[in-house]
Design a protein that fits this description.
Layout: H1 21-31, E1 43-46, H2 53-67, E2 72-77, H3 84-93, H4 108-116, E3 123-128, H5 137-143, E4 148-154, H6 157-162, H7 166-172, E5 176-179, H8 185-199, H9 207-217, H10 221-237, H11 245-265, H12 269-281, E6 283-284, H13 286-296, H14 303-315, E7 319-322, E8 329-332
Parallel strand pairs: 1-4, 1-5, 2-3, 3-4
Antiparallel strand pairs: 6-8, 7-8
Helix pairs in contact: 1-2, 3-4, 8-9, 8-10, 9-10, 9-11, 10-11, 12-13, 12-14
The structure holds a DNA duplex (22 and 22 nucleotides).
Length: about 325
DNA sequence: GTTCCACCGGAAACGGGGGACC
DNA sequence: GGTCCCCCGTTTCCGGTGGAAC
């Protein structure tokens, strides 16, 4: 039944983007100077998870690469590359200029100097999840680098700017902004249909079932595509040539659990212990949480580090921190 | 109204791991 | 082999906040 499993991967960049014409045009216009060998203005892509920001950024940059001979591009995920050093390193990787750079001995400033010394063809850098940067000052460094054009992807504009210093905010104030709204059910169903047509055999899924998935995903294309993939996998396991409604319905919670499992797998052992304690309690106050954690592990980290871990868990959407100060409680998301 | 205290998170310091250099 | 330098995870220190107790 599966013809091309790649298209069922949420990371897959399709050859045509569905229901984002306005956003594609806006981004193409922003990148237009690159076609004349000039740098593009800094552009923000804002919107909730699963609204196609990353997909569209990669798609548009891909189109640009097809149209322009002299261009360099790089994608940097700031969730994984959260320090100034790692961002600059990834950017130099895109220029093939990391050959003599050593993780443990080359100062960050040397990396920056090398990026700033670049004077080749336009270089378009996509900084995804830019609100996860621990050292946003790197944006200032890059802003001052003439040949580098930045596409900055983030969920919420307010959250991103709240974490930046005034100097950077004023510089970025005039930058172009493209906003993404959540997909409607019809739009999501159309996105799924396009993937089914390319990735599965004909009539593998009914339109009504695609609408069911779209509805359950609540506007999040990533969840919708994961659900479709989970359903296709289960139907394949059962040796079916179509995905029945019962499998579709079972795939909805399965896809959400899979996303959560992936997030849990990325945690360090101490972070997992904290998550388990919160899960066991349902809702737990900080004092009890810290105390239980200290009892449960042989080499507990300091309370301050625990707070850093808890913030990490919250950013992963694994837990929720409710209330302030003494009223603070933690619960699983 | 004042004091106490639990909690948060920023900033700086510390130390481990590892590569470069002599 | 010893020393220096760097990144990065962690700890230490501490100021801010606001509810509880007096």
């Amino acid at each position: 039944m599966i013809r091309d499993a790649r298209v069922l991967d949420p990371e897959f960049v399709p050859s045509e983007v569905v229901h984002r014409d306005g956003e594609v045009d806006a981004l193409s216009n922003a990148l237009d100077p690159v076609t004349d060998g000039e740098p593009a203005e800094t552009t923000f892509l804002f919107g909730p998870s699963g609204t196609g920001k990353t997909c569209l950024a990669r798609y548009t940059v891909g189109q640009l690469r097809e149209a322009v001979i002299d261009i360099r591009t790089q994608y940097v995920n700031c969730w994984q590359n959260y320090s100034r050093y790692r961002v600059l390193y990834r950017i130099l990787e895109g220029l093939d200029r990391t050959i003599d750079i050593h993780r443990q001995s080359t100062p960050t400033d040397v990396l920056l100097e090398r990026v700033q010394a670049y004077d080749g063809p336009p270089y378009v850098v996509v900084l995804d999840e830019v609100d996860q940067l621990e050292e946003p000052s790197v944006l200032y460094d890059l802003y001052r680098t003439h040949e580098v054009s930045m596409l900055l992807v983030a969920n919420r504009e307010e959250d991103l700017f709240a974490g930046l210093d005034d100097r950077l905010v004023s510089r970025l104030h005039g930058s172009r902004r493209i906003r993404f709204e959540k997909y409607g059910i019809d739009e999501l169903a159309a996105i799924l249909r396009a993937r089914v047509d390319r990735g599965l055999t004909e009539d593998a899924v009914r339109d009504a079932d695609l609408r069911y998935i779209a509805d359950a995903a609540a506007g999040d294309a990533r969840i919708a595509i994961s659900t479709l993939r989970a359903a296709a996998r289960e139907a394949g396991r059962q040796g079916l040539d179509r995905i029945p409604e019962s499998v579709i319905r079972g795939a909805v919670p399965e896809a959400r659990q899979e996303i959560q499992r992936k997030n849990l797998d990325q945690l360090k052992p101490h972070q997992k212990v904290l998550y388990e304690i919160i899960e066991e309690h349902g809702t737990v106050d900080p004092g009890t949480l810290y105390g239980t954690y200290r009892e449960r592990v042989s080499d507990p980290r300091s309370d301050r580090t625990v707070r850093t871990y808890l913030n990490k868990l919250a950013t992963y959407d694994l837990i929720v921190a409710e209330g302030e100060n003494r009223g603070r409680v933690y619960r699983v998301a």
